Amino acid sequence: MFHFPVGQAYLDGTKGKKMSLQPSQVELMNRARADLRMGLPVVLERDGQAALIAATETLSEARLTDLRDLGRLVLAITPRRAATLKARAYSDQVARVVVPEDADAAWIAGVADPKDDLMKPMKGPLMTDRGGDERLAMTAITLAKSAMLLPAAVMVTLSDGLGVAARFGLTRVDLTDTPVEAPLSTLTEVVSARVPLEVSTAGRLHIFRPEDGGEEHYAVEIGRPDRADPVLARLHSACFTGDLLGSLKCDCGPQLRAALAAMGEEGAGVLLYLNQEGRGIGLANKMRAYSLQDQGFDTVEANHRLGFEDDERDFRIGSEILKRMGFSAVRLMTNNPAKVAMMEAQGVAVAERVPLKVGRSAHNTAYLDTKAKKSGHLL
Fold first, then answer.
1. Spatial contact of 171 and 31, defined as CB atoms under 8 Å apart
2. Domain spanning 187-276+313-375 has what CATH number?
3. Catalytic one among 311, 314, 316, 369?
4. Catalytic residue list contains 313
5. CATH topology for the 25-174 domain
6. Which of 44, 227, 247, 336 could form an SS bridge with 326, CB 3.0 to 4.6 Å?
């Protein structure tokens, strides 16, 4: 039986046109994210260069051995993580750590995951590559982040990416002519339905689905807001621990309930519930950050030690949903000036910033103070 090489576009022999059953690049990238989560390597190509990529978090010892058989291993990590490890990044985008020939999966995991940094502070000296095209390494980090894994990936350069993908049945994505930083994925409203809420019986829930197969996002519409007037709105990022469990480590739950209550009292409003848990790093990484906070690091320092920026969320999602719902101006309930700036930059006018100062307690005072000092929140 003849097998098409993975990730290629093919023509129908009788009609001479591209077959619609072939996965698009967006679909292949989503498949690649899923593969990395399961521990399966993927092949990335760009401008004639190819590399086999494996997420460090899900890398097994057996697959590490097989990767090593294909060539020299490099561990791609973020400059934030490299700074923690005292390794030279030589770039503001990615650091490429040379993996020693005798390194096992546990060594690689130790470089990528800061959980044991204080017990095993000496992980080096680490040698890093300098110069050359780093775009495949940057994409590997982006894929790991979007898969909600630790931002680290093992790479091996390939001379024949197509052949390796076909030989092992791996997902292959050719990124030639594709920007390193992908644009915001197209959002489509799937459905909306009436949902009577405690704050208002005139509630309606809208479900928006991104084209790239990522998490769905929600819009809670209270009443019938006039699209011609600035609507009372809040961009609220999902917080499982705060919103659902009532965690006292953050102010998310109180902010969610206070925003909905204000919209109910006013009789109109829109709360956007964006699935960007843990400021965009996912629940598992958020719990890693919590563990680091228990070791004495603040919320920003914990994110940096993990290899993330202070805030990995994409607030463009919120402005896109608002525009798709017909809103062009908002009275934004937020303490975060970055949200105001993003709205304005994306063409949604902010007629007023409405402060939302609730939920401070003895358990989260240090966290809130850090947000104010290091992230510019107006608290």
1. yes
2. 3.40.50.10990
3. 311
4. yes
5. DHBP synthase (3.90.870)
6. 227
